[in-house]
Amino acid sequence: MPSSTHALFIAYPAQGHVLPLLELAHRFADHGFAVTFVNTDHIHGQLVAASPELEAAGQQDDGAPPPESGQVRFVSVSDGIPPDVDRNNLGTLTSALMSSLPPAVEHMIQNGNFRCMVVDYAVAWVLGVAKKSGMRTATLWPSCAAVMAAALHLPELIADGILDKDGLPTSKQIPPVGELQMNLAPLAWNAAGTEDAQRQIFRCLSNSLKALGQGTVDLLLCNTVKELEEGVLSEHPRPSILPIGPLPTGLRAGKPVGNFWVEDDTCLSWLDEQPDKSVVYVAFGSMAVLDQNQFHELAHGLELSGRHFLWVVRPGLANAVDFPDGFLESVEKRGKIVTWSPQHSVLAHPAIACFVSHCGWNSVMEGVRNGLPFLTWPYFCDQFINESYVCDVWKTGLRLVKDAAGGVVTREHIAARIEKLLNDSATVSRASELQQVASRSIGKDGTSFNNLTDVINAMKG
Ligand code: UDP
């Protein structure tokens, strides 16, 4: 394979970012590219622990030959933080990356003979180095186009007084974006914890935007579907956002998919034993945290519903994973609990009836792709905007809402909403219609299919 098709991919170190970018990297490999995929050392360690086959897909030393055509090789670089520092502090992580990543990438480019570079939008500022070397470049945005459009128009939002100069929302309301009445308050940088963390994340996205302004990004890709965000995409013609989704994460038999935790496949054989459309799937992605009280209330809600359920209880989902007394015995016959599921295969299983989700965008796209109705329970960042798509725009889900007095989503509410959703034929049938829309977009000559084909051809150059 000539070195002209060697592509360099760089991920942002978070689960919901690594998965779709890695799927895109596999697509490039399917089309004959040799791919070098870069994670931070910390994330690489987590991936290898979860998928030992990834170790074989090995590190590349300076001067080693590039990977073969069709191969994805994993490489890791320092994130610039000492090993014992908390990487859940996104401010510290992002700020350190902005210093550590550019020289590491420059070094790789000098030694790698790459033809093109594809990076997460959150690290678009590394592309300056690529442009100096004449490479073609693209970024992937792993959330919806509505939020991407906001990130591409930060200066205008500041000039209009909707955001202050640090990116914090003022009391001024943003006009509707496409069909969405958007609230900018929960955007990434505002949900990042301390004020310093907010400033760092905002600086990071501002730097990505600056890189765009300097002409260092050729293509802006988004893991969405044109037909699902038509309004936003037509209102934001420049710079042009290319929808290429849904990128189906987790479906690569025998190839690393990029999980941070070991998948528990026993839930698939358990699902095989359940009747069609009988199981409530409950999963909150990689970062959401429930307090102990809420965790118990959810367990009681699932118990009270009387329905069969599959619940992902990731390490760290609750402060201490401590089920209510008697809960496990009570639901033994109709409940399955795993620490991490093969989510894509789960959602595609005929036994699944609905998806109780935190509304991370990957989960939303995966639910849509499989025609599932949602019960929405956002935790932070763009998840509130994604919820709004599901419940207000597409009308394929119902909200789970906190009780005003107790501040929790109560067990009675959870059980009642599950029952309401499963008997709501209009919502269930809209979810099936959306599945058709998403399937058409990635099928031959569909909008996402054609965009991705154009992107791959453009990057081959
Ligand atoms: N996921 C998974 N198994 C699980 C839970 C989640 O494979 O048990 C995957 C899911 O398919 C999705 C990703 O993890 O691709 C989570 O990304 P999302 O954007 O939904 O949420 P985040 O983790 O970023 O909050």
TrEMBL record:
Pfam families: UDPGT. It comes from Sorghum bicolor. Gene3D superfamilies: Glycogen Phosphorylase B. InterPro entries: UDP_glucos_trans (IPR002213). It comes from the Eukaryota. Keywords: Transferase. Coiled coil: none annotated. One of its GO terms (molecular function) is UDP-glucosyltransferase activity. Belongs to the UDP-glycosyltransferase family. The keyword Transferase applies. The keyword DNA damage does not apply. This is Glycosyltransferase.
